[in-house]
Each structure stands twice: as structure tokens, then as C-alpha cells.
Amino acid sequence: MNAHLVCATSYAALLLGTSLVTPAAAQTTLFNTEDFRQDRALWTDPDYYLNNTVGQLSGMAIDFAAGGVGTGQEAAARAYGTPGTGEIGATDFATPYPYRTAWEHYQAWLGDAGTPTQHTMETLPNWDGVWNMSGGFDPGDSPASDIVAYLTPEYQEHMVQDLKATVEGRLWWAGAFCLPRGFLSAVESSPMEFYVRPGTVLAVGSTFTEMPLRWIYTDGSGHPPEDRQFSKWHGESIGFWDEDTLIVHTNQIKGWKGGISEFSDDLESVERYRRVGDVIEGEITLYDPAVFTQPVHAAITFEREANPAAELRGLYNTCTDTNGPSIKVYMDDRGILNERLPGEELYFNAADPRPWQTWLDESDRRYQSFLDAGGEGRTP
Asked: Distance from CA of residue 50 to its chain's centroid?
């Protein structure tokens, strides 16, 4: 199975004694719809997903890749169309803060701090060690409908298309193309190491596809002038210390995919971290009005590894170490290294701002052609 086909983690969920889901034959669902785009009114209804969580829907892709095992070969695999166990309201990403923008939020906390703490090497908090992350924007135990409800209509459509393709075994995301996983992967990387200095905090992660890296400048220099700003994979982060608490503002983030859903170039975030014993307690609030119906918020925790195994130390790694070189490059029938050009089959445009959408649309077209030609689709 492709290393990128990874999921996040029966019909028994009840709410006040009433079944959350009616029989599939009596309703339109993600599994029997003829055109999901015509089902907009149902996208925030748990019945539409048979009450599955996002993780449970992803498990159906694993079932497909494992040959329809359902259970056994893959502990997280789920048969296509299996009813889920989502708990309405279990995952709450609503912000507890009244701020309208990330900058207003950051400035309010800066005002609360008064004069930022100017640390020396001797007074800086000690964040040495290897830290394992938990929390963040994991969709959790809510039905997929709860998560879709946080999105604007445009991004609801993007997410539902993604979920439908996933349950049908057509899983597309940035990692499938050996592209960076974006800003949220750098925030939520695990394991993580922090290198804390008077003017900078360096956050370094290590995954099987890349080495996420963030510079957080705490020297008071601020962001560059607007005419020198541009979108970056992990954005640009500035911050300040309020005694032993680090406050961070990030903007100039490249619109990509991660966390709850896709996000736009307008995404900005505010984070706060403080070490308590062997835990760094944190939180993050995301502001992106094109994507979210309200700012979204999550707790983040980093727990210090007591005895990190030597063989699990971080290392420099790239996606091509796992998946090989770009799919544009190939050996032709003359034995010569060649490259696919725009318009040719399987050409991949590295400048495509949303490659998964391009491939999802092509995947939808090919899958429908397959069904129209008499192919057998996935059924419950």
C-alpha cells in the first residue's frame, strides 16, 4: 500500500434514545447519491455520512486499498458504507475569543503583556528535549457533518468531494504528489524539537515525508513591509515572550490543505505556549474568513519524551525518499530520460495551487466513465 494512504485513526450511535441514522435505502447519502453537488442541504446532516466520523470515512479507503478486507489486515479498515459512531458535538473548534482578526487577537495579548519580556540565555524557558504532539485540529469523534459545518459553502463543496472520493478509494492530497504538507503540518508535527534563543525560536519536526521547520522571530523586528510579503509554505512567524509564555502571530501562509480542511492565502494564526513540567501547553486560533464561518480554535499539547530512542532521532528527509522522483519524469521507449509536457496524460503541474482538486476532478471523470462502461462501483 502507498505510504501516503494514511487515515486519521455499527450502526449503534443513539442520541436521546433515537437513532441518528435512517435506513440508507430511504435517504440520499454520500454512498448512493447520483450527484453530491445537488445534496448541499444534506452536507451538514450526519445521516448523509451514515454518522461516520472523518476518520471512519478514511478507513474505507484503507479497506479498498487492502483488497476489501474490512477488518483484519488493517485495524482501521472499514467496509464501504458501514454505519459510523459519530457523536454530535463531540469535536468543538469554536473559538472562545471575541477577536475578528488574527492581528487584533495578537495585539490584544501584546497589550495584556505590557512590555514583552526580554530574555537572556540564562532566563529563557528550557524547552530542550523531544516532544510528542497531541490535540490540534483532529476531527475527532464528531460525525463528518459537524466538521463540514465550520466551512463556507465553497469549501464545504471541496471537503464533501474529497470525502466522497476517499470512501471510493480515490484518495488525493498534497503528499500524493511529493509536495510539502503545508502550514498545519509544521505546527502539529510530532516529534518536535525546540531551539530557544533570545531572538528566535526554531521549531523542527521530522516525518516520513519531510522535515517541517519554523522560525519564530521574537526580536521585536515584526513582519516585513507589505510590499515585501509573499505566501510561504509555513508562513512567517513573529512573537514575544510574556514571562515564560510564548505568543506567536503567523501570516503570509500559502493556501493549501491541512487541519480541518483546505485553507486560503489569507489564513493567519495566533498561538500561545507555556511549559508546565514535562508538558508544553498550547493553543492555536485560525482566521480565514474565505474558508471558515468563524475563527476556529484548538488546544495543542507537547509531551516531553522521557527516554527518546536513539533510532528514532530526527533526520533530514524528503518525500522523494519515500515515493520516488516526480511523476513528470520518465524513461521513454528509446531509453532516454524524458518529461511529460502540458496537455499530455499524467502531466503534473508543479505550480498548480490546488493539485488535489485537479486530480480529484480527473478522478471523478475517470471513475464515472468506468461505471458508465459497466464497471462495478463500490456498494454497501
From this structure: 23
pLDDT, tens only, 2-13 = 433 333 322 222
Domain that holds residue 172: 90-380
Best CA proximity match to 243, nearest among 279, 260, 278, 218: 218
> How far is it, in rounded angstroms, from Cα 4 to Cα 73?
17
pTM summary value:
0.86
DSSP 167-203: HTT----GGGGT----HHHHHS-SSEEEEE-SSEEEE
Sign of the CA dihedral running 158, 84, 50, 70: positive
Q: Are 280 and 131 in contact (CB under 8 A)?
A: yes
In the 8-state DSSP scheme, what is residue 49? G
Other beta carbons less than 10 A from residue 223's beta carbon: 16
Domain count, the chain: 1
Q: Give the C-alpha separation, 304 to 277, whole Å.
A: 9
- Residues in the chain, pLDDT under 70: 1-26, 64-75, 322-326
Is 237 inside any structural domain?
A: yes
CB 87 within 8 A of CB 69: no
Inside any domain, residue 347: yes
Task: Tell me how many degrees the CA angle 239-243-246 measures, rounded to the nearest 5.
Answer: 30
With contact defined as beta carbons under 8 Å apart, do 380 and 81 qualify?
yes
Summarize the chain as % helix, strand, coil (round to 5): 25, 20, 55
Q: What is the CATH number of the domain that holds 150?
A: 2.40.128.20
33 domain residue, yes or no: no
The number of C-alpha atoms within 13 Å of 127 and in the hemisphere containing its C-beta is 25
**Could you report the per-residue pLDDT of 191-204, keeping only the tens digit for each?**
999 999 999 999 99
